[in-house]
Each structure stands twice: as structure tokens, then as C-alpha cells.
Amino acid sequence: MLQELLCRRKDVLMILPYVAIVQEKISGLSSFGIELGFFVEEYAGSKGKFPPIKRREKKSLYIATIEKGHSLVNSLIETGRISSLGLVVVDELHMIGEGSRGAILEMTLAKILYTSKTTQIIGMSATLNNVEDLQEFLQAEYYTSQFRPVELKEYLKINDTIYEKNCENVAEMICKSLSKSRVLTDLFPREYLKHKEKEKQEVIKNLKNVSGGNLCRVLKHTIPFGVAYHHSGLTSNERKLLEEAYSTGVLCLFTCTSTLAAGVNLPAR
Predict the structure, then answer these.
(1) Which residue range forms the structural domain that includes residue 123?
(2) Which of 138, 163, 185 corresponds to the end of one domain?
(3) Is the separation of the CB atoms in 76 and 116 below 8 Å?
(4) Are 82 and 122 within one domain?
(5) Which residues of the chain, if any, have pLDDT below 50?
(6) Do 254 and 172 share a structural domain?
(7) Which residue, 33, 38, 42, is CA-closest to 9?
(8) pLDDT tens by residue, 40-74
(9) φ and ψ at 86, to 5 degrees?
(10) Which residues does the UniProt record annotate as the domain Helicase ATP-binding (predicted)?
């Protein structure tokens, strides 16, 4: 990616499945852009300019969701600038087989293959089944690795007992249970209320500010225990506040949908 931006002087498009992951990559790569002299541009939600600004000196790294990436490619084709893309990186490539979003991703890649002979496509996934078919479609080489530095194991802790995970919807189960105050009383000692108490109140205050004074009653009762949920029903500002609180240790338990599980780096152990 850096080779395309700095040596070959080409723009790069990175396509990611969720807004939260786009925002994480923007945060992580912006400092590299400042130091090395390229722009990092966000194409997610309401952000992004079509067609993108054409620059002579510095090149751009576009980080986009699937839908925004498709719109960006369309605008580059319409303005005759698709060859300015030197590299397209697609994370979670297996989503090409999932409903309408998969169709959008497939159209995006097909358009790039058809309109630009100089743009390289790199797709990444840990759960691809029909690798040979996809390899033929992309006219690509296939590389795989089974290496994992730390063996992945999943467990469920209830009170002082640890169980092996055998339920695929543990997060959903906990989310539904958190609305009942007795579950909090059973699962979490009262000492949890004293852990970073001031910081938790600050989180509640900030959440009220960004939501116009209306805070979900579940979060109001669970945040003092260091517990919160995260899903697409929250606004981007609310999600960001909760992610920061979890990253800094103010919150100790996050129940979430695939928005976070798909790859946002948080200090879960």
C-alpha cells in the first residue's frame, strides 16, 4: 500500500465492511499520512466527496465502506480517472456472497477489472469457502496461511464459574438480560460501582449531551457497573464515546454486534 502511494505515486482504495472499522483505520493511519506525505480520506456515512479532489503532489488513501467504495469507483470511471487507482484492498472478502451488500462489492470489483488493467486488487478473508471460483473471477493468485500466534479459545464466565462457549449468541443473550437489574446484582459485585466512578459519570454526562439529554435507561443503569452495549442503533458519536471508555478501562464489559466483532481493535483479553 505504501509502495503504491509513495513510490508509484498512485491512489489507494481500502474497502471495509463497517463504519466503525473505517473510523478506526482513519484514526490509525492518519499519523502515517502526516509523516509520509499522503492524504487519508474517509468515505463512510455522510463523509466523502464525489468525484474525489484531484491532487498533483500528494496522493490519497481512500478508506471506504462497501457502498461508498462503489460510489467512489463509479465517480472515477465517469471522470476518466479510474487508472489513478493503483491498488484496491478489500477486507472481509467473503461478504461478496452476502445479499445486497455482496452484490455491490461484486459490481465494484467487476468494474475495476473491466475498466482498468493497471489496478491491483488484494482481497482478504478468514472464512472463504469457494476460493477457486473467486480466484477465477478476480484473475488472481491465491495465498493462505494457517499461522495464529495465540490459539483462540472462547469461554463464558458467570459469577465464579467459567464455561466453555457453546452458544453462538452469547452477546445477544447478555444484552437481553442486562435490562433486568437483578442480573447485574447477581453477576457484578457492588465494588464495581466504585471502579473509576467519576469517569463513568463523565461518560453518562457526555452521552446525554450528544443525545439531546435523552439517555437509554439500560445504559443509565449498566454504565455505573462498567457495562455497555454497542450496535448500529447508536449514533456515531455515542459509539465513539463508548469505544473510548472501553479502551481506557472505564468500561469493562462490552456486548456488541458484528459492528465491533468484525475487527475494531479494543483491549479485550
Answers:
(1) 2-138
(2) 138
(3) no
(4) yes
(5) 167-169, 180-181, 185
(6) yes
(7) 38
(8) 999 998 899 999 998 888 999 999 999 999 999 99
(9) -90, -25
(10) 1-146
